[in-house]
């Protein structure tokens, strides 16, 4: 059994909490930690745990805890992950790993020195459709990969802090770090250059206070091997949550993802056919989060390398930074 402590009991935290409390083999959720009383109590009433903490340092002092899932706002990931590694706890950290590459390096080094697993929360890599596509691509069924496209659109109005791109990076960080990871994964390669353009189309009222804010972005990418990539991202699209990808090869193409919530298509007298859209990432990737959490527990028990490593987390952070630099300076950004 792996005894887990959930650190951060907000939106994404509760997904991992519910999984670890009942859906994951060989895992036991024994502790919750959150300084926000309201969230902590709500989590405690739903998830019966042995220990409850307001301060993560108290949780890390508990020898019964083997591993932590860090789901706090990104700004706190670094200090909590490093302290967890030093306390010899295995770490599943939500994406983005941190806000900058140097901090990622420090977390990776702490995990290595203390010999603990570090897995980063790119759950698309555990989604059955993405996994099948990856297998087919790697088997060569569509020939050589030439172009990978990926998009993520989020439905909700940004929270106030998200308009300040110095702390949120805007959609490139908030939503497209997943797409950047998807492209690296399918290309089996690293990015050589990025060119990003963007605009604020849906929130004109914030233009004065946040002139750099953009809600829509389009990125052109070139990998070191020459493979091409295209990503688009958007916030506040309102119609639903949308995540899709396409891999074009020399001998075929693969499409992944669709917006439909289910397969029910309703045809009516007005000659219109309708189908509900997917309203949240929590539904679209529900099973992927379970598989992600199971893989984390398995890699601890089997002493294997996590399927999404600290290095993957760091490369996504680096690419978010390169994309944002390109957008703000209106130039191609070369990645070393
Ligand atoms: N994989 C995904 O697709 C995905 C989706 C959503 C969020 N996330 C990531 O998950 C993280 C959390 O996002 P969220 O939307 O759940 O945020 P949230 O605001 O809903 O929840 C964060 C929780 O962390 C708590 N917290 C703050 N400081 C803490 C500390 N020092 N110790 C313990 N708890 C603390 C807050 O009180 C809050 O309850 C972010 O890094 C975010 O980018 C990933």
Give a written overview of the molecule.
The chain is α/β, with parallel strands linked by helices and about 325 residues long. It has 12 helices and 15 strands. It is about 35% helix and about 25% strand. The protein has a 7-stranded mixed β-sheet. A 6-stranded parallel β-sheet has the order 3-2-1-4-5-6, sandwiched between helices. α1 crosses α11, α4 runs parallel beside α5 (about 100-115) and α5 (about 100-115) runs antiparallel to α12. The relative contact order is 0.16. The model has no long low-confidence stretch (mean pLDDT about 95). Bound molecules: nicotinamide-adenine-dinucleotide. Nicotinamide-adenine-dinucleotide binds near residues 7, 35, 39 and 73.
Q: What is the fold-level CATH name, i.e. the topology of the largest domain?
A: Dihydrodipicolinate Reductase, domain 2
Adjacency order of strands in the biggest sheet: 12-11-7-10-9-8-15
Number of helices: 12
Average pLDDT: 95
Class from helix and strand fractions? alpha/beta
Domain GFO/IDH/MocA-like oxidoreductase: 130-254
Pfam family, one: GFO_IDH_MocA_C3
GO molecular function, one term: nucleotide binding
Keywords: Oxidoreductase
Topology diagram in text:
Blueprint: E1 2-7, H1 11-23, E2 27-33, H2 37-46, E3 51-53, H3 56-60, E4 67-70, H4 77-86, E5 90-94, H5 101-113, E6 118-121, H6 128-138, E7 145-153, H7 165-168, H8 171-174, H9 176-187, E8 191-199, E9 216-223, E10 228-234, E11 242-249, E12 253-256, E13 266-267, E14 273-274, H10 281-284, H11 286-301, H12 310-329, E15 333-334
Parallel strand pairs: 1-2, 1-4, 2-3, 4-5, 5-6, 7-10
Antiparallel strand pairs: 7-11, 8-9, 8-15, 9-10, 11-12, 13-14
This protein binds nicotinamide-adenine-dinucleotide.
């Amino acid at each position: 059994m792996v005894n887990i402590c959930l650190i951060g009991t907000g939106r994404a935290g509760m997904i991992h909490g519910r999984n670890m409390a009942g859906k994951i083999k060989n895992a036991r959720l024994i502790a919750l930690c959150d300084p926000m009383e309201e969230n902590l109590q709500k989590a405690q009433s739903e998830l019966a745990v042995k220990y409850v903490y307001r301060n993560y340092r108290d949780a890390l002092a508990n020898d019964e805890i083997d591993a932590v899932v860090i789901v706090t706002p990104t700004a706190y990931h670094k200090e909590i992950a490093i302290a967890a590694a030093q306390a010899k706890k295995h770490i599943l950290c939500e994406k983005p790993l941190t806000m900058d590459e140097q901090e990622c390096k420090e977390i990776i080094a702490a995990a290595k020195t203390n010999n603990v697993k570090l897995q980063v929360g790119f759950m698309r890599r555990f989604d059955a459709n993405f996994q099948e596509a990856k297998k087919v691509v790697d088997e060569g069924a569509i020939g050589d990969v030439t172009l990978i496209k990926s998009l993520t659109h989020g439905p909700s109005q940004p929270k106030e802090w998200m308009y300040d791109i110095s702390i949120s990076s805007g959609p490139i960080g908030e939503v497209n770090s997943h797409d950047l990871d998807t492209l690296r994964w399918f290309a089996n390669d690293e990015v050589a250059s990025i060119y990003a353009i963007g605009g604020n189309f849906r929130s004109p009222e914030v233009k004065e206070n946040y002139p750099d804010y953009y809600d829509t972005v389009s990125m052109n990418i070139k990998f070191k091997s020459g493979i091409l990539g295209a990503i688009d991202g958007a916030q506040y699209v309102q119609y639903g949550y949308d995540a899709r990808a396409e891999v074009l090869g020399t001998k075929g193409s693969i499409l992944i993802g669709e917006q439909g919530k289910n397969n029910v298509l309703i045809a009516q007298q007005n000659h219109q056919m309708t189908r509900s859209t997917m309203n949240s990432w929590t539904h679209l990737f529900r099973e992927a989060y379970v598989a992600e959490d199971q893989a984390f527990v398995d890699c601890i028990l089997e002493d294997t390398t996590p399927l999404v490593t600290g290095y993957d987390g760091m490369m996504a952070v680096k690419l978010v930074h390169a994309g944002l630099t390109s957008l703000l300076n209106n130039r191609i950004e070369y990645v070393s």
